[in-house]
Design brief:
single chain, two-stranded antiparallel sheet, 28 helices
Length: 584
């Protein structure tokens, strides 16, 4: 009799609303399903993923998300410019900047409408810079270039007028590698990657992205350490010491008539990079106007009147704008390594974003669809430029936790802002003229944070295990040492000749692999982690298994991840249900 009563209660609980069931789980009346833990966060959100604020608030919150991704996204074309030999051309760097924002905006829209449907911003990934370094090592920049003008006069300039050749190689290799990414998502091969690439490999991969860029940060910051350190200090003060200081701001509430109300906003933490940028750039302008800075100081603000006149008001990136893409073996292998790293990073971001935005954990078909559409975004970056793959942006996911706003509509507004600002040609030229020491200060912060984000993955790993300590240590150290040696060796004619096999494509492959610290380190970490005996718990692999547990709220699952276009096609052609990225 008692058994029959217990069965009846369990059956009733199974059909109870999922919020009530979570309370039952908390009270011990029902076993807690780890996949339902997002409900506790959902109750605390102002706007979960499927709820939308009023249009004005959505635009303001979208602007906030745009400002968060602006600094690191802006830095990508600036870091790329020296490898392309256009570091001294503000106009050409402006084109790269405009193209980067347009591609990020389009990729974000694709992810929102056809991908995971989660509030995730797509931005350029620093993982791909190893390939650019390899290309630079093969074709080093010259001190000056002779250019013949239309009137027949020959002049000398410090940037390469044929830089599009280098860009074409980046674009072609990224397009080909992105097809592999689309295959991973389209054929459901993401699960295979998760079985062989765990937190240890991810730690080494992401940490080396930041550590291997230390030389770039040093070169920029050392041009004026005072300005660079001031930039670091201000970012630190705003983002850490003043992060909890809320500034009262008035706004008009139209929900109940027209009333002026006051809202307290944590502006310092939200706009830490932008505020620091405004202050330091203004200081550089003042020091330049008063001739306090020497004539050849890199912190001086340039006269942009001529360059602004050369730039158009509107610049619309288009396929093939930098020439016909080219594919090389070495560049392709480097891009494949970047794509795989981006896939693993994005999968972790999908789970984190879903939880913070009040959504059930994404099912496998959503993971596949997200990676598929991310591959489309990378292909778009290769087709139009700037040849740097896109991936989900973790900082914007962190902003959801701070603002308690996970609405999909907010990210939609942010994507539209990227597109609008991305086509303003003069805006791109203006930001591309930023003094190098200011950029160096941003690098010191951002690259350090990227390395720390990689190291944070060790929270899932047993650090008392000598096995794990050995793998992490040798992988990180080798990933730093080998590129240092390779860069020196490739510059020395005798050593470089000893590394050549006579096959140009294979020689470039060797150069890209050896100069790419993340490729060397991650390859060693992945090999050792899968060959040295160790339990899943010791390796940190059990987290993936827990994340893949089924969610019990099927209606909400369907509501959030429902994609009308794909579902309509699947209803008309049921055989499409067999595809790994379609709900079956």
């Amino acid at each position: 009799m008692g058994s029959s009563s217990d069965d009846s209660i369990a059956k009733n609980n199974a059909y109870a609303p999922v919020e009530d069931r979570y309370e039952m789980q908390e009270n011990g009346e029902e076993e807690i399903n780890p996949a339902d833990e997002y409900l506790a966060i959902r109750k605390q959100l102002r706007y979960p993923v499927d709820k939308h604020p009023n249009p004005l608030l959505a635009v303001l919150l979208g602007l906030q998300q745009y400002l968060i991704m602006f600094g690191p996204t802006f830095a990508i074309p600036v870091i790329l410019a020296p490898s392309l030999c256009i570091d001294d051309s503000v106009v050409e760097k402006g084109k790269l900047l405009n193209t980067m924002f347009v591609v990020c905006g389009l990729s974000t829209l694709i992810q929102i409408f056809f991908g995971t449907r989660l509030p995730i911003i797509q931005s350029g990934s620093y993982i791909f810079f190893g390939v650019a370094a390899g290309i630079a090592a093969k074709n080093p920049c010259q001190d000056s270039y002779e250019v013949t003008l239309e009137n027949g006069t020959t002049v000398s300039q410090t940037w390469d007028p044929n830089w599009h050749i280098r860009m074409a190689e980046l674009q072609g290799n990224l397009m080909l590698a992105s097809i592999l990414q689309m295959i991973l998502g389209g054929f459901g091969l993401v699960g295979f990657l998760l079985r062989i690439i765990g937190p240890i490999t991810i730690t080494v991969l992401v940490a080396l992205i930041g550590l291997c860029l230390a030389g770039v940060a040093k070169n920029s910051a050392s041009q004026n350490w005072g300005i660079s350190i001031l930039m670091v200090a201000l970012i630190t003060i705003f983002s850490e010491y003043l992060k909890d200081v809320a500034i009262p701001l008035p706004y008009i509430d139209l929900s109940e008539g027209c009333h002026v109300k006051v809202v307290r906003v944590k502006l310092f933490s939200t706009l830490s990079i932008i505020l620091s940028l405004i202050i330091v750039w203004s200081l550089c302008a003042i020091l330049t106007a008063t001739d306090t800075l020497p004539e050849n100081d890199a912190a001086r603000v340039q006269d942009l009147s001529q360059r602004m006149s050369e730039a158009t008001w509107f610049y619309f990136p288009y396929p093939g704008q930098f020439g016909m893409p080219r594919v090389t073996l070495g560049g392709f292998v480097g891009m494949v390594a970047g794509v795989i790293g981006g896939v693993i990073e994005s999968i972790g971001d999908y789970y984190a974003c879903a939880k913070l935005a009040g959504a059930p954990p994404p099912p496998k078909y959503i993971l596949n669809r997200g990676i598929l559409m991310e591959g489309v975004g990378c292909f778009l970056s290769g087709l139009c430029g700037p040849g740097i793959g896109v991936t989900s942006y973790s900082e914007n996911i962190g902003a959801i936790a701070l603002t308690k706003v996970g609405s999909r509509m907010v990210i939609l507004c942010s994507a539209i802002l990227m597109l609008v600002i991305g086509v303003l040609g003069k805006v791109g030229v203006f930001f591309a003229s930023m003094p190098e020491p200011i950029i160096g200060g941003m690098y010191l912060v951002m690259f350090g944070v990227i390395a720390a984000v990689g190291i944070s993955n060790l929270q899932f790993v047993d650090l008392t295990s000598s096995r794990n300590i050995f793998i992490i240590g040798i992988s990180l150290f080798t990933g730093l040492v080998v590129p240092m040696w390779a860069e020196e060796a490739l510059k020395d004619p005798e050593t470089a000749k000893s590394l050549q096999t006579g096959n140009e494509e294979f020689d470039q492959l060797v150069a890209v692999v050896l100069t790419g610290g993340m490729i060397v380190g991650a390859a060693i970490a992945c090999f050792l982690d899968n060959t040295i005996p160790g339990t899943d718990k010791e390796r940190g692999m059990t987290n993936y298994k827990d994340a893949n547990k089924a969610c019990s709220d099927k209606p909400l699952l369907k509501k959030i991840y429902y994609e009308p276009g794909i579902e309509l096609l699947a209803q008309r052609f049921p055989m499409l249900r067999k595809l790994p990225f379609v709900n079956n």
